Amino acid sequence: MIKQERALRTHELLLDASADEFVRHGYAGANLQRIAGRTGMTKGALYAHFASKQQLAAALTTPFDQAWREVLDLVEQVDEGNRQPLTALRCITFNLVGLLHSCLRFRAGLHLVLEEARARCQPPDVITDLTRALTRLVDEAQRAGQLEQDHEPAAVSSFVIASVIGTYYTAVAEARLDTLPDRVEDIWHLVMPPPVCDAQPG
Question: Which of 23, 82, 120, 152 could form a disulfide with 77 if both were Cys (CB 3.0 to 4.6 A apart)?
């Protein structure tokens, strides 16, 4: 039992060290020796847990995919009548902001899937599915009179996604990740009214 617990702790340390490495250097620039060194392990010992850099990346992108898809489950609550479209739009936005602000592994997953998407010259599922879901919410909010109809729903949803991801990368570049929720909040207020929301940033 003690051996299993130690192995689990080492596994988690490696995931955190890998997440930091991928955020800093991307997949192509990530170095397994640096990852092992951050945990006080040898590269050979790392291979006992993860056979390759690709396997390490998959251990981060799989839970990343699960996390953002859980955020999209908020959309289904609109169908059940539990939320107004604009409130759901805001809550989805700030749930994503909260994950980017607080979860290193989620940030690593985002970096990895965006890097892979650029290499394939195709948008990642997270962008495609978020755009589809948010466009639907914007359309519903406009038809309900909660948003002005000056812009196409797809353009508004693209702006929301771009504001979240762009503001995140700006905050990272300035080493001010702690300001991310407030920055997105400021951008939100430029174009959206502030409905009451039970999912708070960060």
Answer: 82
Nearest alpha-carbon partner for 165 in 91, 68, 96: 96
Residue 102: which pLDDT band, with cuts at 50, 70 and 90? very high
Residue 177 CB-density burial (10 A; 0-12 exposed, 13-18 middle, 19+ buried):
middle
Tell me which CATH code domain 57-191 carries: 1.10.357.10
Q: Which residues lie closer than 8 Å to 127 by C-beta, 6 or more apart?
A: 117, 161
Whole-Å CA distances, 52 to 16, 43, 127: 16, 11, 27
Neighbours of 157 (CB within 10 A): 22
pLDDT one-digit tens code per residue, 75-90 = 776 656 666 888 888 8
CA atoms within a 13 Å half-sphere pointing along the CA-CB vector of 25: 15
- Dihedral of CA atoms 66, 72, 74, 78 in degrees, nearest 10, equals -150
Residue corresponding to tokens 């859980």 = 70
18: three-class secondary structure by DSSP = helix
